[in-house]
Amino acid sequence: MTNRILVLIAALGLLAACETASKDSGDAAGTAASSSSSTSASASSADSSSSAAQTPAEELASIGDAVFFDYDSSALSDDAKATLSAQAAFLAANPSITITVEGHCDERGTREYNLALGERRASSARDYLVAQGVNAARIKTISYGKERPSFIGSNPYAYSKNRRAVSIIK
Amino acid sequence: MMMPTPLRLMKTAQMAVMAVLAVLATLMPMPMTGGGVAFAQTEKITITEGSIEPTPIGIADFTDETGKPGVLGRQVAEIIANDLNGSGMFRSEDSAYLIPPPSDPSIKPDFSEWAPLGVKALLVGSATENSNGMIQIVFILWDVVTEREIIAGEGEVSEVGLRRISHQIADLVFESWTGDSGYFDTRIVFVEESGPADKRVKRLAIMDQDGHNPTYLTNGSSLVLTPRFSPLVQEIAYLDYFNDEPSVYLMNVSTGRSELLGSFPGMTFAPRFSFDGKKLIMSLAQNGLTDIYEMDLATQQQRQLTNSPSIDTSPSYSPDGDKIVFNSDRGGSQQIYVMDSNGRNVRRISFGKGRYATPVWSPRGDIIAFTKMHKGEFFIGVMNTDGTGERLLARGFLVEAPTWAPNGRVLMYFKQNPTNEDGSGGESYLYRIDITGFNERRMITPSFASDPAWSPTLP
C-alpha cells in the first residue's frame, strides 16, 4: 500500500513537471517515462527487507523493463535502444531467463488497430533484442492494444506512458 | 434454445398497407445533406442531425379474459410501445390508456374516441390464458383515419415467451406501417466491463435489443473483445486471451461452448462473418505485420488476402460477398480501403480529414459505417461504398465500433468517457442512432459495456 502511494506521488510530481516543461516532444515524454520507471523500481526495492540481493525481476525493473513510443509509431528512440541494449546484456548474463514482451497503446485509437499496433511495438522491441544477440526462442510477444494502460488518466502524459513495450520475466 | 416464431398472421389488408406506405414515403425524407463536402472544404465538423416526425400511435393495453386491460396485456403493450418509441418512427400516445379498448379485438374500435388524441394508428389486442396454461395473444393494427385494418395476427406462448412475442408484434407494426423490416426481435452481444481501468474485467454478455434478459457468456477469467454474430445466430466469433494466446474463438450461443478457430502462428483478431455465414475474415498479426485472412468455416481452409508491410485489419464483407472493406495504414495513416474478395483491386475510399477505422458494410449494401478520429475527437459516420457522401452521426471523447441493425436503418456503438488520474471516469455505454442522425439513445446495460454486435433477425 505504502508502495503504491510512493509511486503515485512520484508519478504526480513527474506529471506536473512534464506538463509545465514540455508539451509536444515525444522524446521528452519518453525520458520522463523511463526515469519514472526507475523511480518506481527504487521505491519498491527501498521497501523490500533484503536490499542486498535483487530478484531477476527487480534487476530488470531497475535496468528499465519498458520502452516508450511516439503516437502511432513503433520506431525505437535512442532511449529505447539504450534500454533494450541493457536488457540484452541482462539476458546474456541470465541465460536461463525467458521473457514476454508486451506491446501496448494509448487509448486514442480504435481497438482492433491498436491490437495490431501493440503487436508491432512488441515485435520492434523483440527484433532489437535479437539483433543484440538474444536468442529469439527466449522471447515471446503479446499485444494488449489499449486494454492494459499502466497509467490511468486521459491526458497526454498518461498516453505517453501507455505507448510502451514491457519486458516481463516468465 | 430459440423457439421459432409462434406468431402467425391472420390476414392482411394489403391495399391499406400500400396506401400507408405511399404516404410514408413522403414523410421520411433522409437528410442526405452534404456534410462530407462542407467538412472537406471548411474543416467544419457537421453532425447530421436528422429529424423524423414520428407517427402518433395509440397502443391499447391488451385485454384479458374479462374484456378489461389485464396485467399481462399491460406488459405486452408496454414492450411494444417501448420498441416503437425507441425506433423514433412512432410516438405512442400516453393518454391512450384513458380510453377503454374494445373488450375483444374482434370488435371494431370506436374511432371517434381515438381520433381526438391525434393518433394515426391504433393497436388493440388481447392476452388471455387458455386451459393449457398458455397465453393466447391476438392483435389488430388499425388505421385510425381510414378506419381500416392494416395487419392482424395471433399466437400462443408460455409466460416466458411473452417478451419475445411482444417484440414480434412490434416488428409487424413497424414493417406494415413503414415498409422497412423490423429489428425488435433481435439480440445484442457485447462486452460487459467492470473493475479499474488498468485491470478491467471484460465478459461477453448477450441481451435482447431492448436491454432485457442479459446473460453472461464468459466468466471474466480471460480478457475477451470484439464479439461478432454469425448471420445464422447460433455462433459468435470473438477474441479471447485464453492462456495468454489471443486468438479468435467461435462460441455456440446455445451450449456456451467455445472452440479455437484454426491454427495460426500469431495473434488472430478482428473476426467477421460473411453474410451467408460460410466464411470468416480476420487479421493475423505476426512479426510486426498484420494481414487479412479468410477462412472457410466448413473446410477450415485458410487463405491470405492481403500481403503488405502495413496494418490491415477490421475487415468486413459486402452483403453479396464480392467485396471486403478494411482498415489499413498502408498509405501512412489509418484509412478505409475496399478490395475484391480475392484480395485484388485494393483502393482507398476515405479521403476526408483525419483517420478512419472500423468500417462495417451495411446489410443493405449501400453504405459503410465507420469510426473517425480528428483533432482529438472521435466520430461515428457513414459513407457511400465509393467513399462519397460522408455523414457524421455521433461524436464524443471516444466513440467506436458501429454495428448495424439487421434492417440497415439503425447503428449501435459505444461511447467512453475520459478517465481521471484517480481512476474515476472511463465509463463506457452502448448507444444507438438512426442512420439519418436522429434519435440517439443510450442502451440500458447491467454495468459498463462496449463492443456491441447486433444479431440478425432471429429465426
State the main characteristics.
heterodimer, A: 170 residues, alpha+beta, 60s Ribosomal Protein L30, Chain: A, four-stranded mixed sheet, 6 helices, 4 strands, globular, B: 459 residues, mainly beta, Rossmann fold, Neuraminidase, 2 domains, six-stranded mixed sheet, four-stranded antiparallel sheet, 5 helices, 13% helix
Plain-language structure description:
The complex is a heterodimer of chains A (170) and B (459). With 170 residues, chain A is an alpha+beta fold. Chain A has helices spanning 2-21, 26-47, 56-63, 78-93, 111-131, 156-162, and strands spanning 66-68, 99-104, 139-145, 164-169. Chain A has a single domain (2-169), classed as 60s Ribosomal Protein L30, Chain: A, CATH 3.30.1330. Chain A contains six helices and four strands. Chain A has a four-stranded mixed β-sheet. The longest helix of chain A is centred in the N-terminal third of the chain and has 22 residues, at 26-47. Chain A starts with a helix and ends with a strand. The relative contact order of chain A is 0.17. Residues 1-51 of chain A have low confidence and may be disordered. Helices cover 13% and strands 41% of the residues of chain B. In chain B, the strands form seven sheets. Chain B has a six-stranded mixed β-sheet with strand order 1-6-5-4-2-3. In chain B, helix 3 crosses helix 5. Classes of the chains: A alpha+beta (170), B mainly beta (459). The A-B interface holds A 12, 15, 72, 74, 100, 107-113, 115-117, 119-120, 123-124, 127, 142-144, 147-150, 152-155, 158 and B 196-200, 202, 223, 225-226, 239, 244, 246, 266-267, 269-270, 283, 285-290, 311, 313-314, 327, 329, 333-334, 357-358, 371, 373, 376, 397-398, 400-401, 416, 418-423, 425-426, 451.
